[in-house]
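Example for tutorial group B:
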C-alpha cells in the first residue's frame, strides 16, 4: 500500500511567529504509515492529530532542519495506533535550557558492522528524556562544584579543563554522580542518587554505589541505552550519526595509521596523529564544546573530544535484564563509557562502541553530560 507524506512547517512558529522560529531553528516534520493518512490538527502544545489511522499499524514521524533540499530525514518517534483517530504529543517546545528532547521509542542498540562481540544488535525501548546538548564544560562544572563544596559535598577530583568552554575532564564516575545531585539541588530539583535504600540520604560524599530514585526529576548520568539512542540522532545501522566514515571535520579523535595508511578503512583523516586543529603541544587536546555539527537530535560532540561516563555497569553483550528502559547489570567491576575522545582512535567514536573502566579512574579524556526524565 502506498505511503503518503504530509509536511508540517512547525516549531516555535506556532508560539511566536515565523520570523522568531527562523531565528531559533525551524524544524520540519512528516508522517508516514502503511495506509495514506491526513494531518487534521497540529496544536500549539505539540499535539498531532491525524485521520485514517489504522489500529495495529505503526506510523513514523520524521524531522529535518531545512527545506527545500533537506534530505537527512531522521526518525523522531514511532507511534503505534490503537484507535481510528490518534492523538499524540510528539514535540516538546520548552526543554530545559541547554537540553534537547529525545523522543520515546524503540531503536536497534549495537550493530554488526565491525564484528564487535559486546555490541550484538538488540531492540531496545526507552522513554522520552532530556539530554544536555553539549558536554559539561569546565566552567559549568566549576559553578556547580563550588556551590556543592560549600554545601558539604566531597569530591575526590576537582576536575580539569583546558579552557572554560572546553569539556571538564579528569573526573571519576563517583564525582560525576555527586555533581549531578548538586546540579539538581542547586536548581531546586529532586536529586536522583542516595546513600541508603530508603532514598532518604542524598549521596554527597564517599565513593560507594548509590541507590537511584528513577522517578525523581533531577539530573543524572544517561543509561547506556539512552546514550546510544541519543548518539545515533534518529538514524540506525551506521557507524556514526552522520554515516559510515569519519574525519576531523566531524569529530576530534586520534587517527591511528599503520603501514602508511589509516588502520580503519572508515577513517578519512588525511594524516596520522591527533587532530591538528587542537594539538598545540599541551595535552589534553580537547576542543571547545559544540565545535562540531549537531546530530539529528541537535546534540554536539557525541563522537570524540572526551569519553562520556554512563550509569551502567559493563556487561556482555549488554548485561540488560529488560529491553524497556534497561539500566544494565545490578553489579560489576567496570562502568561504561561511550563516544571516544581526543586520545582515542576512530573505532572508539562509533555509536556502537563500548568502553569500560573502573569507576575510580579519572583521566584527561573522561567527561560526561547529564540527562533528565520528563
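The residue assignment follows.
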Amino acid at each position: 500500500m502506498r505511503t503518503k507524506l504530509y509536511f508540517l512547517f512547525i516549531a516555535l512558529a506556532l508560539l511566536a511567529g515565523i520570523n522568531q522560529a527562523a531565528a531559533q531553528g525551524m524544524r520540519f516534520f512528516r508522517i508516514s504509515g502503511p495506509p495514506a493518512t491526513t494531518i487534521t490538527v497540529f496544536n500549539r502544545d505539540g499535539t498531532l492529530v491525524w485521520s485514517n489511522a489504522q489500529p495495529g499499524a505503526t506510523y513514523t514521524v520524521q524531522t529535518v532542519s531545512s527545506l527545500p533540499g533537506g534530505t537527512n530525514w531522521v526518525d523522531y518517534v514511532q507511534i503505534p495506533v490503537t484507535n481510528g483517530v490518534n492523538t499524540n504529543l510528539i514535540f516538546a517546545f520548552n526543554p530545559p535550557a541547554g537540553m534537547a528532547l529525545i523522543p520515546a521509542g524503540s531503536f536497534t542498540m549495537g550493530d554488526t558492522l565491525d564484528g564487535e562481540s559486546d555490541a550484538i544488535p538488540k531492540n531496545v525501548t526507552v522513554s522520552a528524556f532530556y539530554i544536555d546538548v553539549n558536554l559539561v564544560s569546565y566552567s559549568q562544572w566549576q559553578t556547580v562544584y563550588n556551590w556543592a563544596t560549600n554545601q558539604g559535598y566531597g569530591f575526590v577530583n576537582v576536575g580539569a579543563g583546558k579552557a572554560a568552554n572546553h569539556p571538564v575532564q579528569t573526573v571519576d564516575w563517583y564525582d560525576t554522580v555527586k555533581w549531578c545531585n548538586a546540579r539538581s539541588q542547586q536548581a531546586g530539583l529532586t536529586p536522583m542518587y542516595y546513600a541508603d535504600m530508603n532514598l532518604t540520604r542524598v549521596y554527597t560524599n564517599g565513593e560507594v554505589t548509590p541507590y537511584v530514585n528513577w522517578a525523581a526529576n533531577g539530573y543524572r548520568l544517561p543509561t547506556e541505552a539512552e546514550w546510544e539512542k541519543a548518539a545515533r540522532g534518529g538514524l540506525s545501522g551506521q557507524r556514526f550519526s552522520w554515516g559510515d566514515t569519519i574525519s576531523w571535520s566531524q569529530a576530534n579523535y586520534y587517527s591511528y595509521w599503520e603501514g602508511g595508511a589509516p588502520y580503519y578503512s572508515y577513517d578519512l583523516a588525511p594524516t596520522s596523529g591527533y587532530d591538528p586543529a587542537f594539538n598545540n603541544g599541551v595535552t589534553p587536546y580537547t576542543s571547545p564544546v559544540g565545535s562540531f555539527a549537531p546530530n539529528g537530535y541537535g546534540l554536539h560532540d557525541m563522537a570524540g573530544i572526551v569519553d562520556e561516563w554512563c550509569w551502567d555497569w559493563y556487561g556482555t553483550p549488554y548485561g540488560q535484564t529488560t529491553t524497556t528502559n534497561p539500566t544494565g547489570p545490578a553489579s560489576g567491576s567496570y562502568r561504561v563509557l561511550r563516544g571516544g575522545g581526543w586520545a582515542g582512535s576512530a573505532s572508539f567514536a562509533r555509536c556502537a562502541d563500548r568502553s569500560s573502566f573502573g569507576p575510580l579512574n579519572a583521566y584527561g579524556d573522561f567527561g560526561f553530560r547529564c540527562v533528565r526524565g520528563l
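Residues 173-186 form the longest helix (14 residues). Compare this with the pattern of hydrophobic and polar residues in the output above.
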